[in-house]
Design a protein that fits this description.
It is a single chain. The protein has about 500 residues and is α+β, with helices and mostly antiparallel strands. It is built from 25 helices and 8 strands. Among the domains are: about 140 residues, no CATH class; about 70 residues, Orthogonal Bundle (Arc Repressor Mutant, subunit A). Strand 5 and strand 6 form a beta hairpin. The protein starts with 18 loop residues before the first helix and ends with a helix. About 25% of the residues are buried.
Length: about 500
Amino acid sequence: MVQGLQLSTRLTQSMVLAPQLQQSLALLQAPTLELKALVEQELQQNPVLEEVEGSEVELPEKPSGETGENSDAAAATDPAERAAEAPEESVETPGEALGEAPADDFQEEFDKLVQLDQEWRDQFSPSNAPIRASAEDEERRQFMFDSLTAGTSFTQMLMDQARESNLTAEQLSIAELIIGNIDEYGYLKATVEEISATSQLPAGPISEVLGVIKTFDPAGTGACDLRECLLLQLERAGKQDGLEYRIIRDHMEALGKRRIPEIARATSRTLEEVQESLARIAHLEPRPGRAFLPDTDQFVSPEVFVTRAGEGFTVTTNSDNVPHLRISNVYKDLMAQGGNNPEVKNYIREKIRAGKFLIKSLHQRQQTIGNIGREIVKRQQDFMAKGVAHLKPMTMAQVAEVVGVHETTVSRAVSGKYMETPQGMFEMKFFFTAGLQSAAGGEAVSNTSVKDMVAEIFKGENPSKPLSDQEVVKRVGEKGVTIARRTVAKYRDELNILPSNLRKVY
């Protein structure tokens, strides 16, 4: 067969989401903080949009004949489906619909806007910049800029200490090479031999500079493993002759497995003395660079608020933090005036259409999240009143069927969003969990409730006689829930609880 290039045609079908549908889904899935960024981007790209106070918000128009329950049902439909089925809106103003003549010429109004823009440019041009009153004002301004601080990285802090030490220029370059191999926790991730091989430098000078780096702050920096890190900290504190130093140096494996009697026999000390030493070891820092890690605290803003109202609960959405938009009256007037420039008029018409779709999508987003939140509270009344132990099994498919949307829409709507309840702040996905069947064919219990039950059992155990996984299975069974031993082991690992042989306190 002769090989070569050829052209051929083929007819296929594929599903493609329109840009407006993609935007609608992105708005639904974005949490409040990300939503603000998306809307801000639209405000920069669409000149006809402007942000207003909540009292001035422009709500999307309802279709004719849509009132009461029908209106709520329409608001609860899938945003992708509604956007696909909705006809293209007309943006004609009342003046255009009635065929009224424009009050002023469109081009004249457009020229005024251009002139106003030029006046602002001239006003703030460098030639018109105000002159500072005196050298004292300039000095005050410079002091303000010099006072601005920025966080120092762990690597930069180590390099600053290296420059302040008595290292030569050649040793400083070696120090820079070593510090580049220290990770964010303060551990050296390459051996002296590996650094020597990659840099073509003798191992002796590298070891010498590494010894200097190990004296830097924080104590333990430059260690190759946890054992050396803890020993460096004890050496810095002058406790080389203490029991803690001896335990870490000679019995690190037994320490990791908490074999306290074995350590007591090997060191010829009592169990009480060993336990006191272990308590002091627990105060050492296993990750010296932890203090310089970037701040990973996440600030969340709840999307749904649940408050008590008599014997029930009231559900409200967080509309205060959602941007409120409307179409600028300036561009509405421009469209009403007609004009002789159809290209500009078509541009404004398309921007108004896109702006209306964005406003409708934001409004529909709030309705969808509110409907899902109300259904969650309806199904989790016991949780709202009594706590996690009363959380019931619930799936997204169940909520989607009641709300009238697709299951994937529920998944998007609850993704990364939080609900403030009388029991505290919870991610909305927290309420969707599978269940375990209770004894005698009773009501199903959620996995989260069982996990909380297991945690309470471990919390109340006797430290000198820790419970095994099988014993926990029996105690959970006494509460009417059937559970396997491997499930208890899985929950114990998720709760960061050690096995019974490592939890025993002598």
